[in-house]
């Protein structure tokens, strides 16, 4: 391989999601000191000219690189963990290393009643508190009531729901939104409906809302991200997950967005990843696998692609 | 300790036969029903229901409903159901109560039952009523009372023994500040009472008493007009000392003009296999009258006889 090509391969191996260990071994392993020097001098993204005349590895990049080496390990650990422990730890991080409201909503609303209960049990074992008390204590924002309610929910999962009640609750939501209250997530009725009704009931509310107002409920709640996410997670999780993937694959924002890629694929691989793939394709014009080939590296990339391929075997 | 007396190995088949015989002919042999069902525990009752169904292709519960009436029918109906199902029924009745929900039942079950027991009741509720308990409570209440009751009914509380002394002290101080500001409907009060484990709350309440001189309950007056405060007071009392709470429910139910049979039935039926004996002791200490005696005076006929059987009369 020509030197310039090798530089290109190496740069890619060092930047992006995950690290291409194979390339690093094969290229770096055979380079002599002058090759490495040449690489350092020409790769301005990663190395900067120090005043004492040597090419110094950019500190921020070293930190990022460390994270990238860990990315595969983190994905494997997350995948192997019992879903209850996994979700309990994600919840804990969302409270104590954030707060990351999106993750709280995601876990509380996209898991089944028994899965959420299991996560809460695991949380007791791991942290000797309930997630309910920890969120109530540590989160002080207006969203607290909604979040405590969502994470405390043990929703009915049977087939029955009241069509008339769903219609009237769609109307209630329409009126509350129309009044344009600033703190919508504090509105008693919105919180009541979103935190206690069954998912089937909420899908009916969603449907009636569209029929009577002409708009989608989650779009009308667009100004209140947390409410929008709540409705999406409860009524059409594929849409929510697709948007999360889209943001994370565009490389927008911080490591938080990149972590989301691992989290979504690992937690949805055996659930609805097939649906999410279809919706992602529809939204972006690309296949998920294609995008991941483009921006991820090494074992991390291979692992994600393997998980995605599982979805194709689902019926 | 429980008050229920029951034989070690009764025959469900013999019991089912005896009950069938009790239904035959004109009228019903209530004495037989009382002497059998009044002396069987939950497992044994379930076996009788199954045997009866197998032998006669009929639901014992429905048959009892049609044969009996009044308070006697209500107590037998609640007694013959599986405990979780019964509690679900009691909760549903309480929620639908007019003119306003009977918050006592919701508070009792959510604070006195341990998290696993209460979860089992919630499952039974969903199974029977095709709604979650939380959504029904939310739909039938508003404002502060809704926040408190939904807040009590929803969380799956931590039930390990671990308790944080420092936290108990700081939350006791927080409560003291709110009591001073007369802000008992403040978020923080609701947060502490609805999300902390019972062990943690009791620790905070004890610290409150130790450092501020009086128990917090002294500051919560029995204001019948304010359901929220009354429910809050009930919650705190139930968490602190469940048997004392039950004694009070019985005392009020027996003393009021007209007698509150629903409350008496609820307490006796739900505690006969748990701690009714302790409640009896407390009742006697408080009122200088035996509970059996008070019930004898205020109730009558088969209803009375059945209650006394559950209270341990042979």
From TrEMBL, chain A:
This is Annexin D4. Keywords: Annexin, Calcium, Calcium/phospholipid-binding, Metal-binding, Repeat. GO terms for cellular component: cytoplasm; plasma membrane. GO terms for molecular function: calcium ion binding; calcium-dependent phospholipid binding; phosphatidylserine binding. PANTHER family: ANNEXIN, ANNEXIN D4. GO terms for biological process: response to cold; response to heat; response to salt stress; response to water deprivation. The lineage of its organism: Eukaryota, Viridiplantae, Streptophyta, Embryophyta, Tracheophyta. The keyword Methyltransferase does not apply. InterPro entries: Annexin_repeat, Annexin_sf. It comes from Coffea arabica (Arabian coffee). It comes from the Eukaryota.
UniProtKB/TrEMBL annotation, chain B:
Keywords: Annexin, Calcium, Calcium/phospholipid-binding, Metal-binding, Repeat. Ca(2+) 3 binds at residue 298. InterPro entries: Annexin (IPR001464), Annexin_repeat (IPR018502), Annexin_repeat_CS (IPR018252), Annexin_sf (IPR037104), AnnexinD_plant (IPR009118). GO terms for cellular component: cytoplasm; plasma membrane. The keyword Metal-binding applies. Coiled coil: none annotated. One of its GO terms (molecular function) is calcium ion binding. Gene3D superfamilies: Annexin. Ca(2+) 1 binds at residues 23, 25, 27, 67, 256, 258, 299. GO terms for biological process: response to cold; response to heat; response to salt stress; response to water deprivation. A pair of annexin repeats may form one binding site for calcium and phospholipid. Belongs to the annexin family. This is Annexin. It comes from Coffea arabica (Arabian coffee).
């Amino acid at each position: 391989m020509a030197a310039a090509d090798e530089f290109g391969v190496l740069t890619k191996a060092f930047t992006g999601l995950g690290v291409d260990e194979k390339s690093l071994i094969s290229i770096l392993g055979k380079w002599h000191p002058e090759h490495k020097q040449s690489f350092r001098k020409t790769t301005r993204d990663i190395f900067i000219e120090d005043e004492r005349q040597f090419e110094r590895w950019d500190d921020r990049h070293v930190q990022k690189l460390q994270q990238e080496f860990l990315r595969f390990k983190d994905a494997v650990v997350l995948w192997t963990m019992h879903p209850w422990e996994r979700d309990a730890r994600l919840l804990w991080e969302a409270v104590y290393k954030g707060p990351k409201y999106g993750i709280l909503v995601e876990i509380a609303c996209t898991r089944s009643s028994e899965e959420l209960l299991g996560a809460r049990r695991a949380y007791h074992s791991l942290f000797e508190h309930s997630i309910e008390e920890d969120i109530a204590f540590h989160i002080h924002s207006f969203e607290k009531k909604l979040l405590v309610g969502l994470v405390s929910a043990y929703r009915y999962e049977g087939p029955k729901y009241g069509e008339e009640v769903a219609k009237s609750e769609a109307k209630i939501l329409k009126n509350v939104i129309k009044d344009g209250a600033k703190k919508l997530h504090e509105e008693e009725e919105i919180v009541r409906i979103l935190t206690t009704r069954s998912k089937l009931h909420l899908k009916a509310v969603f449907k009636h809302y569209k029929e009577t107002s002409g708009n989608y409920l989650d779009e009308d709640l667009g100004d209140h991200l947390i409410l929008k996410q709540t409705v999406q997670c409860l009524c059409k999780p594929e849409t929510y997950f697709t948007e999360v993937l889209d943001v994370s694959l565009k490389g927008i924002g911080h490591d938080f967005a990149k972590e989301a890629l691992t989290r979504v694929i690992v937690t949805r691989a055996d659930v609805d990843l097939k649906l999410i793939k279809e919706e992602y394709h529809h939204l972006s014009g690309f296949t998920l696998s294609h995008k991941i080939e483009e921006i991820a590296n090494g074992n991390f990339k291979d692992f994600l692609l393997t998980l995605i391929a599982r979805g194709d075997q689902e019926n | 300790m429980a008050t229920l007396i029951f034989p070690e190995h009764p025959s469900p088949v013999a019991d089912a036969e005896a009950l069938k015989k009790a239904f035959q002919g004109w009228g019903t042999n209530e004495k037989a029903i009382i002497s059998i069902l009044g002396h069987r525990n939950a497992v044994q009752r379930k076996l009788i229901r199954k045997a009866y169904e197998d032998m006669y292709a009929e639901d014992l519960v429905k048959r009892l409903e049609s044969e009996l009436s009044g308070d006697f029918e209500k107590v037998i109906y609640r007694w013959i159901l599986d405990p979780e199902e019964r509690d679900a029924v009691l909760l549903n009745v309480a929620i639908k109560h007019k003119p306003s929900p009977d918050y006592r039942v919701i508070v009792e079950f959510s604070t006195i039952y341990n998290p696993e027991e209460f979860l089992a009741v919630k499952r039974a509720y969903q199974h029977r009523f095709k709604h979650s308990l939380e959504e029904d409570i939310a739909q039938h209440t508003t404002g502060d009372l809704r926040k408190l009751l939904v807040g009590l009914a929803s969380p799956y509380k931590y039930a390990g023994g671990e308790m944080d002394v420092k936290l108990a002290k700081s939350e006791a101080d927080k409560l003291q500040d709110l009591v001073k500001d007369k802000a008992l409907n403040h978020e923080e009060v609701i947060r502490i009472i609805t999300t902390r484990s019972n062990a943690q709350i009791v620790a905070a309440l004890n610290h409150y008493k130790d450092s501020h001189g009086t128990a917090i309950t002294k500051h919560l007056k029995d204001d019948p007009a304010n359901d929220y405060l009354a429910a809050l007071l009930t919650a705190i009392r139930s968490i602190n000392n469940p048997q004392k709470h039950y004694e009070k429910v019985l005392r009020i139910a027996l003393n009021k003009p007209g007698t509150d049979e629903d409350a008496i039935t609820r307490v006796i039926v739900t505690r006969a296999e748990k701690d009714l004996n302790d409640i009896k002791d407390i009742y006697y200490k408080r009122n200088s009258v035996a509970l059996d005696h008070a019930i004898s005076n205020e109730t009558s006929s088969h209803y009375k006889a059945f209650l006394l059987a559950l209270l341990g009369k042979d």
